[in-house]
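Example: Tudor domain-containing protein.
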Amino acid sequence: MVVLARRRVTRWQRGKIVEIINKDDGRVKYKVIFDEKGKSLVSGHHIAKETTPKLDQLYVGARVLIQSPEDEQCFLPGLLSELPSRKNRLRFLVFLDDHTPVYVSLPSLYLVCRQMDDPLGDLPESPHKCFMAQYLRSWPYPHLTHYKEGQILKIELNGVHQKCHVELVDCSLMKVVFEENGETDWIHRGSLRLEHMSKFLELKQNRGSKADDSDSK
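Written out as structure tokens, the predicted fold is:
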């Protein structure tokens, strides 16, 4: 059976299941031989069928894959973050594990076979994991900032907030151009990379901590 299986943390590839192994503790493992040489032993959490999922199988928080735009042999894991609606022009929003947001159509999605009880269980401890936890808690009303094309703002790039301007707004995303080097980037309008949003969440957390302290007295 041909599947997409995890080869590295952020890199999945096409391969074939050659053996199903039933462990003594009840777990099931799948031995996968990859098309580009190599093999791996993975669980159902780390394989996906190379078929288009049905709409009723998809939900916000589902673990999915999309094909890498830079390498057709590579598939990138992420979390489904919006379902199609008129507001997003009937597209799916996926947050990749490196915090990159991207709108895709149904044929571009591959659903991980066995979903984890905790949708964040496969994410390493990082600002992105904190962001996704907040995002899923606030869904279907995630925090979104409002910017207009041409507006100046600051966004984190390489660990530093840098000045840029909004070139294009596309539903929950916006394309920005950094003034220093002309580099462009797509960013979610609620991303922690936004200086405004990071300050807002920091203030919210501080208020929550003060409230907890007062309750404990």
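The longest strand covers residues 11-22.
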